[in-house]
Amino acid sequence: MKPVLLWFRRNLRLADNAALLAAARTRQPVIPVYIVDEQDIGTASRWWLHHSLASLDRDLRQLGAPLILRRGSPVDVLRDLAEETDAEELYYATRQEPASRCQQDELAASLDDKLQIYGFGDSLLHNPDDIRTQGGTPFKVFTPFWKTASHLGEPPMPSAGPETINFYTKGTASLSLHELELLPESAEREASLRANWVPGESQGLQRIDEFAEQVADYKQQRDRPDIDATSRLSPYLHFGEVSVRQVWHAIRQVELQRRSAEGSAAFLRQLYWREFSTYLLRNFPSLPEQPLRAEFEHFPWRDSDSRLEAWQRGETGYPIVDAGMRQLAETGWMHNRVRMIAASFLVKDLLIPWQTGADWFLDTLVDADLANNSASWQWVAGCGTDAAPYFRVFNPTLQGDKFDPHGRYIRQWIPELRDGSQKPYPQPIVDHGEARQRALEAYKEIRGGP
């Protein structure tokens, strides 16, 4: 029997993996491969990818074969693999980023005469093409999107992973994991990420179970960065170490048992926010670069290297902003409420372009998802669909008082503010009141208002 190629992408798991299950059902020898390409960017997310691939490789070896690692253009690599092994079929998971969709189009155009190609879309709760307005156009506001998607019914139940796979065992050339050079050059950065995270499918599944036990408090506590009330599932979802269907049904089961109806419902709505971000990127592929509200193309931004660097280092003089940026630097993650506050400070207090902040997050977040990151930054900047009004400018001091009322989060990440510290804390780099007024004037300028 001729082998089949199984191309892993953002589905680095065995359970509830439609492409893997379809390949296994052929009973033909399966060649599992991951291809590092230009989309695998970001210091923190590349670190996660390294360890996620190591975990997947271990799981595959337990079933009988290693993960083949290659680097380069997926079309070229897959063509070479097909020629090397005489494979005639390819199974893969579809993705929604513009570059990924181009890859998929190239596969169909370049390899359909050599391979039977099968793509499987199991990274979302619903097919985004099934969610349209009555006029057949894409939604631009979350609530009607959510209502329409919810009416499509529950997503399919997740499937178990295969107990056995018939692997191709004749030997296929592979790079070593270290040859992919995914780990950061800084040993300190590597150590801090390793101290805070354990990538891999088994850890992701464990995290689902742990969060399901505490989801009752989610609605009341999710905005408190000093309390461990959020799921921290975002990197596991981003790399597909767990499926969104696994998460949805685990939390839905808790809701049906009436143990935490409000908390579960609030979290399931957040999964649809994730869905909405991907939906926007699919329908508006310029989302990472261009504001969706055209007037913001003329916004009078004020680039400042010194102020940007202060924001990146967590030395703005505003404790809630600095705590978040230091948490990000050390752990590769930041509480979602604090992400909004830090982002608002950059684009509205400092008038630095939202794309600059989005690029920094893509490099430093372990869950650096292009769709979520782009949609969220446009939302905060006021230039996207369903965006927060631009004139809504977070007061970082009041936000800190409201969401970190005892100062525990701030003191955790800013040692200068702990009792007995001898190190001075920076003075504010801008006056918030004056900065807010500058932002409002800039907004009036692009709107043509008085």
Describe the structure.
- By secondary structure, the protein is mainly alpha-helical.
- It is 49% helix and 6% strand.
- The model has no long low-confidence stretch (mean pLDDT 95).
- The longest helix has 23 residues, at 261-283.
- It is globular.
- The chain starts with a strand and ends with a helix.
- Strands 3-2-1-4-5 form a five-stranded parallel beta sheet, sandwiched between helices.
- It has helices at residues 18-25, 43-63, 74-85, 98-111, 142-150, 187-196, 201-214, 218-221, 234-238, 244-256, 261-283, 305-313, 319-331, 336-349, 354-364, 370-381, 396-403, 408-413, 432-447, and strands at 4-8, 30-36, 68-71, 89-93, 116-120.
- It folds into three domains: 4-122, HUPs (Rossmann fold); 124-156 and 191-283, Serine Threonine Protein Phosphatase 5, Tetratricopeptide repeat; 294-443, DNA Cyclobutane Dipyrimidine Photolyase, subunit A, domain 3, CATH 1.10.579.
- Helix 5 crosses helix 11, helix 11 (261-283) packs across helix 16 and helix 15 (354-364) packs antiparallel against helix 16 (370-381).
- Strand 1 (4-8), helix 1 and strand 2 (30-36) form a beta-alpha-beta unit.
Reconstruct the topology from this structure.
Elements: E1 4-8, H1 18-25, E2 30-36, H2 43-63, E3 68-71, H3 74-85, E4 89-93, H4 98-111, E5 116-120, H5 142-150, H6 187-196, H7 201-214, H8 218-221, H9 234-238, H10 244-256, H11 261-283, H12 305-313, H13 319-331, H14 336-349, H15 354-364, H16 370-381, H17 396-403, H18 408-413, H19 432-447
Parallel strand pairs: 1-2, 1-4, 2-3, 4-5
Helix pairs in contact: 5-11, 7-10, 10-11, 11-16, 13-14, 14-16, 15-16
